């Protein structure tokens, strides 16, 4: 697998998002999850991303049990699951969460530590100062921010350099192209694209709306609620036809489009099973292919917002 840079570390161009190990998309099985991690590493994936709220620590525990050390690992803190949902960015809370995560991960150090959501009441400069202390103490290799505005990134970076910024980015979620991707490039921060396969919409087969109520987070997500869900399937169908015609997997073409948007972009698709990893073989796209994909799926094609009002809590809006 080709390499891209996070901080001063080269990692595979495709990373791995471990949110699904925590049950966000349905029940999980530890043995299957461990087998999936093995297969991901065998495929050349070296950057793995988790968080303390994914299954209330379950995802971190699985990675800790896996026990691999030859990887670049990111975890996060800052979200307090509700209801109501809340965030905390004060130094004592961040330190407490980090120690808890390190215990679950069976580590003394993590390569990248994100603030999952920003707490508006705490100046971003103070937060950057807290994270700089953790770097200097050797607890973390670098720090990142998630779902922030370009202005927040600039302020934080001026206080202490930001290693990476994570936001949703895919063919159907293009907001980061309105400033955040460009700011990351300018400042030398990696842009980590989560949900690059649109939470399964760019999976091997068209999704069916059989999400488990109260378990699968898509059940209440506007883009997966009718009539939006059927409308989105219809818009994406010609893209699936194009992939079949060109011999690409649908996930492989969607990932290739994301990678083509900047050399500093690292997508982190996720899966619960090793079976889906073979679909992530990145398609070889040229400029004509990219133009055709964007003709079929132009910016703004999605029906429905990417989050519900509740899910949007503490996501910074800048456009």
UniProtKB/TrEMBL annotation:
<dbReference type="InterPro" id="IPR023210">
    <property type="entry name" value="NADP_OxRdtase_dom"/>
</dbReference>
<dbReference type="Pfam" id="PF00248">
    <property type="entry name" value="Aldo_ket_red"/>
</dbReference>
<dbReference type="InterPro" id="IPR020471">
    <property type="entry name" value="AKR"/>
</dbReference>
<feature type="domain" description="NADP-dependent oxidoreductase">
    <location>
        <begin position="14"/>
        <end position="296"/>
    </location>
</feature>
<dbReference type="GO" id="GO:0005737">
    <property type="term" value="C:cytoplasm"/>
</dbReference>
<dbReference type="InterPro" id="IPR036812">
    <property type="entry name" value="NAD(P)_OxRdtase_dom_sf"/>
</dbReference>
<dbReference type="InterPro" id="IPR050791">
    <property type="entry name" value="Aldo-Keto_reductase"/>
</dbReference>
<dbReference type="GO" id="GO:0016491">
    <property type="term" value="F:oxidoreductase activity"/>
</dbReference>
<protein>
    <submittedName>
        <fullName>Aldo/keto reductase</fullName>
    </submittedName>
</protein>
<keyword id="KW-0560">Oxidoreductase</keyword>
């Amino acid at each position: 697998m080709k390499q891209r840079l996070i901080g001063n570390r080269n990692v595979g161009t495709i990373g791995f998002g471990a949110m699904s190990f925590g049950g966000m998309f349905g029940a999980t099985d530890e043995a299957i999850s461990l087998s999936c991690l093995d297969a991901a590493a065998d495929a050349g994936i070296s950057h793995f991303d988790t968080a303390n709220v994914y299954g209330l620590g379950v995802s971190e525990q699985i990675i800790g049990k896996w026990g691999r050390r030859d990887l670049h690992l990111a975890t996060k803190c800052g979200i307090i699951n509700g209801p109501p949902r809340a965030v905390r960015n004060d130094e004592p809370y961040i330190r407490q969460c980090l120690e808890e995560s390190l215990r679950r991960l069976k580590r003394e150090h993590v390569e990248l530590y994100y603030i999952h959501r920003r707490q508006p009441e705490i100046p971003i400069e103070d937060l950057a100062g807290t994270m700089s202390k953790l770097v200097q103490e050797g607890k973390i290799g670098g720090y990142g921010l998630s779902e922030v505005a370009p202005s927040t990134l600039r302020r934080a970076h001026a206080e202490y350099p930001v290693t990476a910024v994570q936001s949703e980015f895919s063919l159907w979620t293009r907001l980061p192209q309105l400033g955040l991707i460009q700011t990351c490039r300018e400042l030398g921060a990696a842009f980590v694209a989560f949900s690059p396969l649109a939470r399964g919409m760019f999976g091997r087969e068209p999704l069916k709306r059989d999400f488990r109520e109260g378990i699968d987070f898509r059940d209440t997500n506007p883009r997966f609620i009718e009539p939006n869900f059927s409308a989105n399937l219809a818009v994406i169908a010609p893209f699936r036809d194009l992939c079949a015609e060109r011999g690409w997997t649908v996930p492989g073409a969607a990932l290739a489009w994301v990678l083509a948007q900047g050399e500093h972009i690292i997508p982190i698709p996720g899966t619960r099973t090793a079976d889906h990893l073979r679909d992530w073989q990145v398609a070889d796209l040229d400029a004509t292919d990219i133009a055709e994909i964007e003709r079929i799926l132009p910016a703004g094609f999605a029906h429905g917002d990417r989050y519900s009002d509740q899910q949007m809590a503490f996501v910074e809006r800048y456009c």
